[in-house]
Amino acid sequence: MQGTGGQQAPFRVRTYRSFEELPGCYAHLLDDMAKINFSFSRAWFLAFARTALQEGATLRLYGVESTHSEVQARGLFVAQTPAARRGSLLRNRHLGKRTLSGLTGYQTYLFAPLVRDEDPGYEGIFDSLAAHLRGERPQWEVIEFAAMDAEAHSYDVLMAALRRAGFAVRGYPHFLGIFEPTRGQDYDAYLTKRPASARKQIKNYERKERKLRQRNSFKWDLFTSEAGLDQALKDYNAVLEASWKEPDYHPGFLPACIRAAAQAGTLRLGIVYLDGRPAATQLVFLAGQRALFYRTAYDPAFAKVSVGAIGKLRMVQHLLNEDRPVDEFDFGRDRESFKKIWASEERTRCGIIAFNLRTPGGWRGLAEHRLFEWKDWFGEMSRPLRSKLKDLKQGHSPQHAGN
């Protein structure tokens, strides 16, 4: 099999059932990927596999290895079967047992098969993976890769490799997220570049923090390692229990992630204390000069003093002034209004679904997917007509009868 630039790149694909089964050569690959994004780290995947794997699912690790003089880990696809439902386009679809997806869920901000961008055999690695997935027996019916960066090289290369392997392939928009480029900025420069309305709001949070400090009731603690982490987790959970947020489907996931991130040096857990009580938390994972703002919460008893926003303010200040350089703030899924204060850019994470048309389940999955595509298309095309009909209906209502 040829790599990019015509370089000969013989690869083999092996399947492992756990991270503990992986040979030692995968440690270098996983370390390199963890430097890019915490969502690509061994710590993230281990926490997910141990605490958030959907009921009845099993872990499958597809390792792409080269065998020149010694075995080298060149790629790793961390997967689960049956395919994930929560946080997935497939959540309301029929799923048979022979379906596969990345190890993703509603917790996932970003996913991709793990391959170094600079690998000279980049395309060959994806071709080997796709061909192996196509050739496994019993055959896979549907394979999904969710929460991917459509602008990353891996997205187009994976889609092309799956097509060459014989799958019917569809891409789709998965979710919208908000982020802010911060390369080369300290806090003052960041604040200067915020829109006027956001800058005014942030200044208001600064004034509220100063007032709290004058009362000697304010304290902000930052936890980045295992030192003091046991008590920090108790305080973190106390805030979550008091907050408005619904309990997690997998309550063990974030504590496991926090401990793993503390060991890896990527944890930034900020806690605001008022009058000695934990009042707000801001959880961030920092890796590859990207700050992933993962979870914020506050005790409603302190809502009037904007304690949640003050906790976020202190984290932003620390990241830009103390952890420099930080190139990006990633606020993850959805477009909650408060995020617009801190970030302005939007991007769509995308997914890929591969259907195996040699199986009845593959044909059924593709047909179902096309029906959803047509439904979405019809909804968009009929929106102006529906809007006009709504206006006409309101014009004939009793309250408009005299007009």
Written overview of the protein:
The protein is of the alpha+beta class and 403 residues long. The chain folds into two domains: 4-176 and 348-380, Gcn5-related N-acetyltransferase (GNAT) (Aminopeptidase); 183-326, 3-Layer(aba) Sandwich (Aminopeptidase). The protein is built from twelve helices and twelve strands. It has helices spanning 26-34, 42-51, 122-135, 153-164, 187-193, 196-214, 229-242, 253-264, 307-321, 339-342, 360-381, 383-395; strands spanning 11-16, 58-67, 71-81, 99-102, 142-149, 168-181, 218-223, 267-274, 277-287, 290-298, 328-333, 345-355. A twelve-stranded mixed beta sheet has the order 1-2-3-4-5-12-6-11-10-9-8-7, with helices on both faces. A hairpin with a 2-residue loop joins strand 9 (277-287) and strand 10. The protein is globular and about 70 Å long. Residues 1-8 have low confidence and may be disordered.
Domain module tally: 2
Radius of gyration: 24 Å
CATH superfamily of the largest domain: Gcn5-related N-acetyltransferase (GNAT)
Under CATH, the topology of the largest domain is which?
A: Aminopeptidase
What summary fits the major beta sheet? 12 strands, mixed
Could you tell me how far the N terminus lies from the C terminus, measured between alpha carbons in angstroms? 75 Å
What fraction strand?
Answer: 25-35%
Number of strand segments: 12
Task: State the order of secondary-structure elements, H for helix, E for strand.
Answer: EHHEEEHEHEHHEHHEEEHEHEHH
Low-confidence stretches: 1-8
Walk across the major sheet and give the strand order.
1-2-3-4-5-12-6-11-10-9-8-7
